[in-house]
Amino acid sequence: MHNPDKPGSVSRRGFLKSMAGATALSAAALTTDAQARINAPHDLETLKDYEEHWGFCDMCYWRCGLKVRSRDGKAFKIDGNPEHPLNRGVVCGKGNAGIQVAFAPNRLKQPQERVGARGDNNWRPIPWDEALDKVAHELNKVKEKYGPQALVMIGHGTWEKPYHRLSHAFGTPNTTSPVFGLCCGPRGVSNTVITGRNLTGNETIDLENCKYFLMMGRNVTESLHNGETLGWIDGVANGAKVVYADPRYTVTASKADEWLAIRPLTDHAFLLALIHTVIKGELYDKQFVAEYVDGLDELTAKVEKYTPEWQEEITTIPAETVRRIALEMAQKAPAVFVYSPRRLTRSANDLGTGMSITILNTLFGVWDRKGGIFTPQTIKVPEIDLPEFPHAHVARGETGGDFDFAQNPFATDEEGKVQRADGAGVQGRWPLANPQYGLTNEMWRAMAEQDPYPLKALLTAGGNGFTNSTDYDTVRKALMNMDFYVAADVMPNEMNSYADILLPEASYLERYDDLQIGGAREGFIALREPAMQPLHGTKGSWDICKELSKRMGLEAYFPHETVADMLDDRLKKAGYSLAELKEKGIIKKPADPAINFPRENGGKSVFPTPSGKVELIPSQLKALGMEDAIEWEEQPRPQEGQFHFTFGRVGYHTHARTQDNIWLNYFMPENVLWIHPEAAEKLGISNGDMVDVQDTKGRGGKIKAKVTPRIRPDTVFTVHGFGHWDKRMTTAVGKGLSDSLLASDTREKHIGSISMGTSMVTLSKA
């Protein structure tokens, strides 16, 4: 275990203190430097006036509030909006590099039509009217031949909403976003079936007052979300203990009190042993359990066999460590939190892992308590008045988008055959999957196999199916099966190289988008407005969809002349106006302890489950015959000569979106493969050597080795998002190795999400 206070290492307290002192040191240095330049032989320069525009960031999915400075009609500097609850005015390196999205030399600049084979990147420029006419014609042609359900729409990002609206107006149920099946789905389902309350990845944790973090690979200092990282640092500075479980010694591990070098894929076993220990030792919050919880006796019977000794052989964490952590957390409860990974698409039973995290938090009584999980506030902003969609209800008066699938989760024809092709929300297939977001991994399979019915047209908005999925052959086959594929995006990538028509989007600095409606201690509505006019004749996503709707007879779903008019309409329905929102870029509802922490203020917690209580063995799972999801399932282990293949994030890049960004590429131009010195020595590999990595399917490639003791000897690791081969990405092409090429593509058996972490690889010196 890591001792943060041993000689030669910086303790976490020292780290925090050094951060506080950095400002004074920097100021002193700058003062000296400024004095040296006072006598420079030229007149002082007067900076030109500039304008400020409000926005929220699109460089990752935390969406920090921004103030964007513009001069001479061009954005030149990004600052944080100090009023925004998600970042408190802080902008990270990725956020600052957003300027390079607008001015990227490689961005898509004009509509293009494919003239060669799909994927060969042979294009001819065409005018906007011709491009939009072709898109409308081809989509309607597919609709006439196969029906509206033959269209698939895959979006990824804050600009995807108008494409979802257009597709649902077209009549297809087959819209997806990777956020569920490829990232957060299992953790959301876990919380919802047990408590009726979803933790989405933007957790409503009272980080500053938490006294004990058990972090299951939640690498908050590198998978960087400013508000979360700031809150966590405040919590640590306020005395919280941090126990960090991860096969790799991350930056977050270096700031923790303990590092548990857990074997990959075994988090569930460790958590089950903790549940066993908490129940056996009666370390749970008895008052909370008695008032709010059902199923303790049934759960007790299920976890009887999951002792600390049982998990030790599986996880390699000592049994006494499990017992000690359980006792320490109980002593600090309810100001404790078992911190789930944001991306919980890893093992064959991610639902069981997620449920175990939710159960532990529940047993410690953290809901609606100081230092635990608070109830967020939101401001309800109704959607605009729209016609009914062919198969889904408009979510009037709510904040979750256009569609409410609660009454009708999939489209049906007279015979009841036309269901979502990915099976999300469909009884007998993947009923636990959220049809609002769908299963993108299963949609790729459906397109590749043309099952359960023909899928012949594809519309994508952002994203890259090759680098956010893990089966290149399936994605490629799916793309080749399309009669027509139109891609809207700001930047080129491998997926949109297969398109028939490319529509170049304005960047997030050049357009209005729909409102950001968030829930934290303060409820808020935030604005994204253009800081400059679109470059190169590009168009915003709402403008593209409105133009297409006119050509497809769907203009009633885009009734406003401008996006600004639409925003004003929504805001006025909530009692506000666009003019009011433009004053500070944000409208907030003040924090209210009685709402945020009702059980600290004489109130009650609310759990909207069928029973109205936290269900440790969820009734929804019982109805589906899945009540054994909590049980441990053996996971793959490396054979002789094999390694667990793992991947993750860094603060410099977001997924596979930023490797072609000139500024961010400077900080990390390629990824490397972490390997433990013992394993490297056996294979004759030295630091910096090129190594050949192969999985059991024969997929692989070459990458530089980073020999380091900061990883388990049975595990290798690389940073996600590299290994691009699209030659239009001139900064990123050919650098590093794609983790998506090596990660596994099996299904989580309860939800249908992808299981990316079960891949085993072999290494050899190249």
Automatic annotation (TrEMBL):
Give the 4Fe-4S Mo/W bis-MGD-type domain ranges: 50-106
The organism's place on the tree of life at top rank = Bacteria
Stated name of the protein: Molybdopterin-dependent oxidoreductase
InterPro entries in UniProt: Asp_de-COase-like_dom_sf, MoPterin_dinucl-bd_dom, Mopterin_OxRdtase, Mopterin_OxRdtase_4Fe-4S_dom, Prok_Mopterin_Oxidored, TAT_signal
The UniProt keyword set, sorted, is: 4Fe-4S, Iron, Iron-sulfur, Metal-binding, Molybdenum, Oxidoreductase, Signal
Q: Which Gene3D superfamilies match?
A: 2.40.40.20, 3.40.50.740, ADC-like domains, Dimethylsulfoxide Reductase, domain 2
The coenzyme or cofactor needed here is:
Mo-bis(molybdopterin guanine dinucleotide)
Pfam families, per the entry: Molybdop_Fe4S4, Molybdopterin, Molydop_binding
Please give the family membership noted in the entry: Belongs to the prokaryotic molybdopterin-containing oxidoreductase family.
Q: Which PROSITE patterns match?
A: 4FE4S_MOW_BIS_MGD, TAT
Please name the PANTHER family in this protein's record.
TETRATHIONATE REDUCTASE SUBUNIT A, TRIMETHYLAMINE-N-OXIDE REDUCTASE
